[in-house]
Amino acid sequence: MKHIFLLAAGLLTAACAPLGPSVPGEVVRVASPNFDVRRPNYVILHQTSSNSVERALATLRNPERKVSAHYLIGRDGTVYQLVAEDARAWHAGVSYWGGATDLNSASIGIELDNDGEEAYAEPQIVRLLEVLRDLKERYRIPQANFLGHGDVAPGRKVDPSARFPWERLADAGFGLWCRKPLVADVLAGDDVRAGLERLGYGTANPEAALMAFRRHYLGIDSAAEPDAADLAMLGCLIREREQALP
């Protein structure tokens, strides 16, 4: 009788929540309205390194390539959705940021159709800003959590390129930025590697992390030894990030 009651209750509440596959064996399925879908806390930006949106779409939909993203934005500003926002797309791979690993499970991935050498098209950036504004509002994503693939996978990935307009995004509320004069007092006693870690970078490969930082915040691809300018920018960004934390 108890099982009959539970089964009847499950039928009555089945509309409350979608019940997918369950454990093997006899299972009494009783839907509950008390649940949330996956809520992303990051947005990771990529470039396709492709010459056409058609080629990029073919790659992102090829089951043998095992790579995808939630959205692809073409050079003309057309937005393609490939994966539902509450599903885990395969875009970040092995990744790390600020103690978080497996960024695929916590982020929205957006591919920008760009070959890596060209400037980003204006219609594409305008549409990207609209998409980011919507995602930020709906998921309450912190400003500091708009990142590039190269930030979360330094040494393995280098996108978006140094041509990407991170400053423009930060001005619109997506990502951190600092302007001169820069003050590095918050890094007193720390070196560049410690500063990169405080900002969020994984530093298993400190040289690659420094290059990813420079690509994002200085707009350069440089493997030169760290200097005072790096420390000053790091100090400013760390202050911005820590002040923004709840």
What structural class results from the helix and strand content?
alpha/beta
Please tell me what the overall shape is.
globular
The parts where pLDDT drops under 50 for at least 5 residues are 1-15
Q: Remind me, CATH topology of the largest domain?
A: Lysozyme-like
Strand order of the largest sheet: 3-2-6-1-7
The number of helical runs is 8
Record keyword descriptors for this entry.
single chain; alpha/beta; Lysozyme-like; 3 domains; five-stranded mixed beta sheet; 7 strands; 34% helix; disordered N terminus
Would you write up a description of this structure?
It is a single chain. The protein is an alpha/beta fold and 246 residues long. It has 3 domains: 1-35, no CATH class; 42-154, Lysozyme-like, CATH 3.40.80; 185-244. The chain is 34% helix and 10% strand. The protein contains 8 helices and 7 strands. The protein has helices spanning 2-12, 53-60, 122-139, 149-152, 166-171, 192-199, 206-217, 228-244; strands spanning 42-47, 71-73, 79-81, 96-97, 100-101, 107-112, 146-148. A 5-stranded mixed sheet has the order 3-2-6-1-7, with helices on both faces. A hairpin with a 2-residue loop joins strand 4 and strand 5 (100-101). The longest helix has 18 residues, at 122-139.
